[in-house]
Specification:
Distance between the termini: 57 Å
Number of strands: 16
Number of domains: 2
Radius of gyration: 22 Å
CATH topology of the largest domain: Rossmann fold
Helix content: 25-40%
CATH superfamily of the largest domain: P-loop containing nucleotide triphosphate hydrolases
Strand content: 15-25%
Number of helices: 11
Shape: globular
Protein name: AAA+ ATPase domain-containing protein
Organism: Deinococcus irradiatisoli
Strand order of the largest sheet: 7-6-8-9-3-10-11-12-13
CATH class of the largest domain: Alpha Beta
């Protein structure tokens, strides 16, 4: 039998954190962002800080331990891991007391990882006593899977979960956010693909760029704690990225400063926002399939922890935001209940394709 009875009299172990209140040890953490926002900049910053002497490393204003790091680069594999090495060098120029030999950078030479290669990675992490394993990214590491299908997304998630439990390392998986739709805020739909990914992770963080006009032209990132099972969630942090240049205008280093976010950003993540995000996530996860109005209403209530009246409004606003990407379907049964079908192709374009 694959079921295990839990001893409720046993003392629960204390949860330790790699980054206090943000990234737990022994579990999966997701960091999602659109391409080019700064996932690699941020993840290599954490990796480099962990190579510094004990008591010296800091990340987003928090102390981090010193220890071995494995960085699996599959998102921009070019045979040299140039993007990863570039950013490690930039961080090294600012914090020269780190040790490059404490970061092991790996690339997959095939189409993602095979089960055998995953086992080799597990053995390597054990032998090194790795404190942190960064998988950049989920899509690049498991390219043959359909991330929108729960049954397919769960297989690598369960493997990653066991990997984190067996090694005790913080397993950080970067992933992509879907392109935002009309009248939709960046990150509203969360991590791209099946909600099974977020369900298996113990922490989910979203990284988006604050419009430069709102921060006097500076490069400021918004780190949103979307989920954190062992610490406070639903709050945001600001990160200013300051790039340094030498006398010839070449990049010479990068600083990451915790900073304040514009006032409107601080209050953005409301229960109504989360209700709308849950509705949009359900529609996009089941793209091409009909979703009943009752299912959308239930998703809004559960996702935003709101009452039915607010959920009804969230459903209406979500459908309005998606516009022509959603088609209303009337079912041929008593009462003609409403259902909706999401497609990445606008309705008018689908009609053109079907027209001879």
């Amino acid at each position: 039998m694959s079921l295990k009875q839990i001893d409720l009299s046993a003392t629960l172990r204390k949860i330790d954190f790699l980054v206090p209140d943000l990234i737990p040890l022994g579990y999966i953490t997701f960091l999602g962002a659109r391409e080019g926002v700064g996932k690699t900049t941020i993840s290599t910053a954490l990796a480099w800080q962990m190579t510094r002497p004990a008591g010296r490393g800091t990340f987003l204003g928090r102390s981090v331990p010193s220890g071995p790091v494995i960085y699996l680069n599959t998102d921009a594999a070019d045979g040299e891991s140039r993007p990863v090495r570039y950013w490690l060098e930039q961080h090294k120029n600012i914090y020269p007391d780190g040790d490059m030999s404490r970061v092991t950078v790996l690339e997959s030479t095939g189409a993602g990882l095979t089960p055998e290669e995953f086992g080799e990675l597990l053995n390597m992490a054990r032998e090194m006593n790795a404190l942190c394993v960064i998988v950049d990214s989920f899509m690049g590491t498991f390219p043959t899977l359909d991330g929108n299908r729960l049954d397919q997304a769960m297989r690598p998630m369960l493997a990653l979960r066991d990997f984190a439990a067996q090694t005790g390392a913080a397993v950080i998986v970067t992933d992509h956010l879907p392109k935002r739709g009309a009248n939709e805020k960046e990150g509203d739909r969360g991590i791209m693909g099946s909600t099974g990914k977020s369900a298996q992770a113990r922490a989910v963080h979203l990284l988006t760029r604050v419009p430069p006009k709102e921060v006097e032209g500076r490069d400021v990132l918004r780190w949103e704690v979307r989920k954190n099972s062992f610490a406070p969630s639903c709050h945001v942090l600001g990160i200013e990225v300051e790039r340094l240049e030498d006398e010839e205008g070449r990049a010479s280093g990068v600083y990451l400063h915790p900073c304040e976010l514009p006032a409107e950003e601080e209050g953005r993540d409301t229960r109504s926002d989360r209700a709308k995000a849950a509705v949009i996530a359900l529609l996009t996860e089941r793209a091409g399939q009909t979703v009943t109005h009752a299912e959308l209403l239930a998703a809004a209530i559960n996702g935003g922890n709101v009452k039915e009246r607010t959920a009804q409004q969230a459903v209406r606003e979500s459908l309005g935001a998606l516009g022509n990407l959603v088609e209303e379907v009337r079912e041929a049964r008593r009462g003609s209940p409403r259902s909706y079908c999401y497609s990445a192709v606008p309705a008018f374009e689908r009609e053109e394709v079907l027209t001879p």
